[in-house]
Amino acid sequence: xxxxxxxxxxxxxxxxxxxxxxxxxxxxxxxxxxxxxxxxxxxxxxxxxxxxxxxxxxxxxxxxxxxxxxxxxxxxxxxxxxxxxxxxxxxxxxxxxxxxxxxxxxxxxxxxxxxxxxxxxxxxxxxxxxxxxxxxxxxxxxxxxxxxxxxxxxxxxxxxxxxxxxxxxxxxxxxxxxxxxxxxxxxxxxxxxxxxxxxxxxxxxxxxxxxxxxxxxxxxxxxxxxxxxxxxxxxxxxxxxxxxxxxxxxxxxxxxxxxxxxxxxxxxxxxxxxxxxxxxxxxxxxxxxxxxxxxxxxxxxxxxxxxxxxxxxxxxxxxxxxxxxxxxxxxxxxxxxxxxxxxxxxxxxxxxxxxxxxxxxxxxxxxxxx
Length: 370
Ligand code: SF4
Prior knowledge:
Strand order of the largest sheet: 3-2-1-10-12-11
Helix content: 25-40%
Strand content: 15-25%
CATH class of the largest domain: Alpha Beta
Order of helices and strands: EHEHEHEEEEEEHHHEEEHHHHHEEH
Distance between the termini: 47 Å
Bound molecules: iron/sulfur cluster
Number of domains: 2
Number of helices: 12
Low-confidence stretches: 318-326, 360-370
CATH architecture of the largest domain: 3-Layer(aba) Sandwich
Shape: globular
Mean pLDDT: 85
CATH superfamily of the largest domain: HUPs
CATH topology of the largest domain: Rossmann fold
């Protein structure tokens, strides 16, 4: 039985450490480092991968999702003018007489939910309690493409070769926290496909993942080792590590972590990621405005390919004080998110000190320069 150790490398500190452990234990001939290129990466990511290849004398396999077929099928779908699925909207539930239907506690009493003071982002100040109304769906409405919107969509529905943009053009929207299809389509599927090919070739695949339990609630119970299918296993060697341990480990090997950590980035991934924190968005806009400009261009392309004619990188309802999505991508697009990211206290007050800070000073979230 020949084992292939497949290491998912993102160019971040966790996957760097995982790669180093694998190389220490099994040597470069038994280790296959892979990188999923989303197309929404910072240049430093590619540079760091090149740096690792040179420093460790290894080859990192680049995987790239392709959506040419999906885009071609969507073009056909629009051109044939098929009716689209019915759209349902979430609405507060009422009874036959139009009276609100409230959620109930176990003892039958009406459930109350707190109303927070928007001036305090961390939801620490409760203004009042109100009865919690049940949420249901309206009867929905069918949408079809108008000739104008068809022409507009067909103009932009052309594969660009950039996986992230092509995925969004195909879907007619950007991913969101609730619909995080980017991870599945751009990372998970190419990796699984790659590993299954190795299994078909007769290898046993051990997939190494740089996951730490202290990263998030969801990863708190991550197992160190598990079998995920015939001939396929997952190994997470650093589940018990802290972020500081990964940096120490990289330095102890005489290497440098990705320089993005020294430029205010809490994590290395998409630039920006849909899960980026408010302060990260602020940092990105100041240090790498060209990436925000790129996202703004993508918003206008994806809006054209969308049946709603509006698609924003960060869903508009997630931005405080913005509720009317129909105003368009310009009003609710990435630049309005950046304006919001520059504010403090729930988005009402601009943080002048934060804007005056020198954008080239090290402000690593991990205190690398301390
Ligand atoms: S979750 Fe973030 S980092 Fe992951 S693919 Fe989506 S945008 Fe990129």
